[in-house]
Amino acid sequence: MTAISEIFSKICTKAIILLALLLIQLMLLIKKLRSETRPISTTQYLKLIEQKNPTISFTKRLKQEHVDCRVCLSELKEGQRVRNLKCKHTFHKDCLDKWLQQYWATCPLCRNQILPDDVVAKYRQLQNQVESDGNDEQINFLLNALRGGSSLHRFI
Ligand SMILES: [Zn+2]
Ligand SMILES: [Zn+2]
């Protein structure tokens, strides 16, 4: 009788561990699925900027109105890749793209909106998710600890 109850309790413990493992794996799966439907990636974000304000080559005509890129404060030269915004302010493409990724999507000079708020919010959401991805380490640690525990049980 005792032998049977011992076996039974061992099975129970294993079942509990297995269930916990499944639960954690399910949590990881949900997290992964959620990350796959992430709102807007950096590439998509830059693509949207490009659609609204296509990259152009800086020309003599533009030089009459613009002298410096106000992000890097260096002179705009003919042939350089620039973006001419709707507000008529011109910046180097790379300077502006960096700016737009770090700050809200507004013109560095006049704060005129470049992309709609919801697009920027979706992009920011992604940035926050990337920053909080460290949480996975805790889950992985727990998973390994449990795996270690279940292998121990095989020896008992
Ligand atoms: Zn610049
Ligand atoms: Zn502007």
UniProtKB/TrEMBL annotation:
* Molecular function GO labels: zinc ion binding
- In this chain the RING-type domain maps to 69-111
- What highest taxon heads this organism's lineage? Eukaryota
Give the keywords, sorted: Metal-binding, Zinc, Zinc-finger
Give start-end ranges for the coiled-coil region(s). none
Q: Which Gene3D superfamilies match?
A: Zinc/RING finger domain, C3HC4 (zinc finger) (3.30.40.10)
- Matches recorded under SMART domains: RING
UniProt KW DNA-binding keyword? no
Q: Fetch the PANTHER family from UniProt.
A: RING-TYPE DOMAIN-CONTAINING PROTEIN (PTHR47662), TRANSCRIPTION FACTOR C2H2 FAMILY-RELATED (PTHR47662:SF3)
Could you tell me what this protein is called? Putative E3 ubiquitin-protein ligase XERICO
Tell me the organism: Senna tora
